[in-house]
Each structure stands twice: as structure tokens, then as C-alpha cells.
Design a protein that fits this description.
CATH architecture of the largest domain: 3-Layer(aba) Sandwich
Number of strands: 10
CATH topology of the largest domain: Rossmann fold
Distance between the termini: 19 Å
CATH class of the largest domain: Alpha Beta
Number of domains: 2
């Protein structure tokens, strides 16, 4: 039997792999007597500068709808809906014409949303030293499904690890989301490695495991809750409960 090619590069998913998203860290908001966690309150403050008659509950409902609409479109063919486009959905739902907004207004909304989302991202303390050790042996990359690259970069910068990655590929830049092979191909080309020489690490069986397998990479599946693998997905190369286990496997 032919031995596997030596690992030259490790590609990581971002959310719930390198960083944990803690939704309870999002701002608390009461809408129609119900407590929710959302950036809608902060966005509403910005929105009032241009459209001061939009009530908070309508702002929240439209924001939720815009996310649902973006998810519906993404599910069709895994094409990304960038944050600027989704915020256009949101403003249009509120009868606010994005084209009629002042220069920089949409960008200020995006920056407000980015800042609040970043507060909800927890970078586990042991991930930094682990990535530093791995970067001494392998080329590292991030491949993330996310609609706004500055948020992803800011989270990695706050964790003090952004410079450890040879490339950071986010779906809003590429236009395609995992499990489409296009986003993996961009990262592999930038790294200068073949799929057989790389390992992908992610937490989603349907997106990370299956997508990387289709490209021809070995896969380390972070399955923290020991959930069963869906029957239509081949077993990953490794199954982990924590990212720390990766170092001893490769």
C-alpha cells in the first residue's frame, strides 16, 4: 500500500474551529416583549441618522429577514451573498433606498455589525501556542464561509495569530462557499500545494468534511459533541474532540 504524501499544509475553518462564536455575547435586545441577541439595536442607532422614523422592532424583523433571504439564496448553489448585498436587502425591506444613502453610510452599518460580531468570538487560549508550533512545520491557511472579510481578519488579529497564516480565504472574496471546490482551490493555489499534500480542519461534516474530501484533501473533523456522522458522508481521516488533538496526529 502506498503511504500518504507528507503533510505540507494545514487549512482551517474559522468559526467553531479556530474561534468559538458565543451568541450570548451579542447585545441583548427586547423586541415586542421578547429578549433576543442581535446587533439590530446598534444598527438602529446608525440607521436613525438617515431614516429616523424606522422603529426598532421593524429594524430587527427586517434584519432577521435579510439573513434568512441570504441563507435561502446560498442554499441554491453555495454562491456567497456578501454582507453589503445582504444589508441592501435589509434597507430595501425598510423602504430605504441604498443608492440614496449618504456616502459611507452603508460602510458604517457594516462596521458596526462587524464590531459587535467580533465581541462574540472567543479565541481559546490554547489555540495560539498550538498554531505557532504548527506554523514552524507547515504552511497554514484559513478557509472560511463568511460574508465580510474584515470581520474574519479582525478576529484573527485580535487573537494575535493573523501573521501565522500564509493565506486567509473568505467566501465573500471568492464568491463561493464551502463545500464548493472553488474556495478550496483558491487556498491551495495560493499555498502552492496539491490537495494530497494538505489537511483540512473543520467542524461541519456537510460543509468542511465533504467539501475537502471532494477536493482530495485529508480531513480532521472537530466533533466536540461526538455526534454521529451523516450516513452519506465518508468517514474523515481523523475525528477530534478538540483542536489540541491535531498536533499529535500529523
Amino acid at each position: 500500500m502506498t503511504s500518504p504524501a507528507p503533510v505540507q499544509a494545514i487549512l482551517f475553518d474559522l468559526f467553531d474551529t479556530l474561534v468559538l462564536f458565543e451568541r450570548e455575547r451579542l447585545p441583548r435586545l427586547v423586541v415586542n416583549g421578547r429578549e433576543v441577541r442581535s446587533t439590530a439595536g446598534q444598527l438602529h442607532e446608525v440607521l436613525r441618522r438617515h431614516a429616523n422614523t424606522v422603529p426598532l422592532d421593524q429594524c430587527y424583523d427586517a434584519l432577521l429577514w435579510s439573513w434568512q433571504e441570504a441563507e435561502r439564496l446560498r442554499a441554491v448553489d453555495h454562491r456567497e451573498v456578501p454582507a453589503a448585498e445582504r444589508f441592501g436587502f435589509w434597507l430595501t425591506r425598510l423602504d430605504v433606498d441604498p443608492a440614496g444613502c449618504p456616502a459611507g453610510f452603508v460602510e458604517s452599518l457594516l462596521d458596526t455589525h462587524r464590531r459587535e460580531l467580533a465581541k462574540a468570538a472567543e479565541f481559546p487560549a490554547h489555540h495560539g501556542p498550538l498554531l505557532e508550533r504548527l506554523a514552524q512545520r507547515f504552511r497554514l491557511a484559513v478557509v472560511s464561509n463568511f460574508d465580510y472579510t474584515p470581520t474574519a481578519l479582525g478576529i484573527l488579529e485580535a487573537g494575535g495569530v493573523v501573521d501565522l497564516f500564509a493565506t486567509i480565504v473568505v467566501s465573500d472574496e471568492v464568491g463561493w462557499r464551502k463545500p464548493r471546490r472553488e474556495i478550496f482551490d483558491v487556498a491551495l493555489e495560493r499555498l502552492g500545494v496539491a490537495p494530497a499534500d494538505a489537511v483540512f480542519v473543520g467542524d461541519r461534516a456537510d460543509i468542511d468534511v465533504l467539501g475537502a474530501q471532494r477536493v482530495g484533501m485529508r480531513v480532521a473533523w472537530i466533533n466536540r459533541k461526538a455526534e454521529p456522522l451523516p450516513p452519506d458522508i465518508p468517514p474523515p481521516t481523523w475525528e477530534l474532540r478538540d483542536l489540541a488533538e491535531l498536533e499529535g496526529l500529523i
